[in-house]
């Protein structure tokens, strides 16, 4: 699934080719890509000039006039191409521009979305801080985590706590910070929070330099591949030797997602109790995660 480094890589590839051009046509082959508003609503963007291409968390945003824009969420298997997509990837929509560029939205699992927002602000403010921004400090991360007793891995995946981190880079950051994914978020001490803050930023920064991780269906818009996965320490490496100690990497299930970690380098913290030592009890994984649905009200025309 494309995360911050992958979406940022796509943004950097796309912006120079379409910024300043205006949208001449939006052709939708699969109406579900534009749900819930529908393809007709997307047509409101036709004729508008692309002022810039932005990224917020895992969202790619074609900024149009005022606060309006087209938001692309690639979800699990979505990808954008200026060239013909690889075999097996189904084109769901095509954006045409005044400078003859054509941007194809392809997706195998049909979960990605292409949506027009008349006002982007509600989307932008409901997401958590950008981890690579200058004002994202270790103190801010510590404050955000201290309010949560869910496992730290689950907290890092919550886009309201921190935007853009997904399964792969949460695993990598936790390994680099030597923190067990089941540790309750609010139980991290100041030193651990600082280490995690540093590791989140360095893991994401290095992945952008390598143009993202092409572990599955992530492609660059020109059909190229990223190489960040070649440098992964734990993510997608179950059974491989830990680069820190040589023990096989393990994968545990946490809220229906795999969490790769090293059981020796990332032990559960122990807390002292009279007469014995035992691992800190993590919050039990739940099967009742409620995904907060974004308000669609802002995409509707003003009444
Ligand atoms: Zn290890």
Describe what this molecule looks like in 3D:
It is a single chain. By secondary structure, this protein is an alpha+beta fold. The chain folds into 2 domains: 4-128, N-terminal domain of MutM-like DNA repair proteins, CATH 3.20.190.10; 138-279, Orthogonal Bundle (Helicase, Ruva Protein, domain 3), CATH 1.10.8. Helices cover 23% and strands 20% of the residues. The protein is built from 7 helices and 12 strands. The chain has a 4-stranded antiparallel β-sheet with strand order 1-6-7-5, with no helix packed on it. Strands 2-3-4-8 form a 4-stranded antiparallel β-sheet, with helices on one face. A two-stranded antiparallel sheet has the order 9-10. Helix 1 crosses helix 7 and helix 6 (167-176) crosses helix 7 (190-209). The site of zinc ion (ZN) has 7 residues, from loops.
List its traits.
7 helices, 2 domains, N-terminal domain of MutM-like DNA repair proteins, 4-stranded antiparallel beta sheet, Helicase, Ruva Protein, domain 3, 303 residues
């Amino acid at each position: 699934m494309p995360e911050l480094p992958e979406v940022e890589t796509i943004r950097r590839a796309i912006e120079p080719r379409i910024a300043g051009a205006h949208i001449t046509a939006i052709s939708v082959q699969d109406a579900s890509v534009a749900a819930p508003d529908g393809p007709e609503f997307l047509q409101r963007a036709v004729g508008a000039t692309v002022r810039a291409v932005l990224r917020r968390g895992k969202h790619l945003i074609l900024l149009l006039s005022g606060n309006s824009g087209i938001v692309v969420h690639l979800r699990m298997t979505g990808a954008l191409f200026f060239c013909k997509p690889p075999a097996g990837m189904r084109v769901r929509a095509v954006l045409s521009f005044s400078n003859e560029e054509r941007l194809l939205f392809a997706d195998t699992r049909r979960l990605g979305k292409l949506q027009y927002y008349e006002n982007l602000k509600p989307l932008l403010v409901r997401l958590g801080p950008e981890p690579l921004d200058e004002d994202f400090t270790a103190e801010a991360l510590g404050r955000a985590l201290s309010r949560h007793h869910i496992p730290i891995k689950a907290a890092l995946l919550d886009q309201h706590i921190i935007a853009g981190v997904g399964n792969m880079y949460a695993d990598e950051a936790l390994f680099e910070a030597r923190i067990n994914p089941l540790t309750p978020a609010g139980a991290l001490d100041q030193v651990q929070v600082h280490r995690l803050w540093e590791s989140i930023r360095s893991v994401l920064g290095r992945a952008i330099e390598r143009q993202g991780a092409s572990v599955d269906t992530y492609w660059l818009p020109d059909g190229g591949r990223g190489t960040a996965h070649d440098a992964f320490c734990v993510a997608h490496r179950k059974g491989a030797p830990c680069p820190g100690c040589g023990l096989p990497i393990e994968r545990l299930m946490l809220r229906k997602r795999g969490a790769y970690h090293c059981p020796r380098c990332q032990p559960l913290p122990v807390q002292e109790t009279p007469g014995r030592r035992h691992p800190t009890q993590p919050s039990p994984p739940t099967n009742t995660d409620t995904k907060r649905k974004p308000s669609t009200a802002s995409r509707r025309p003003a009444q």
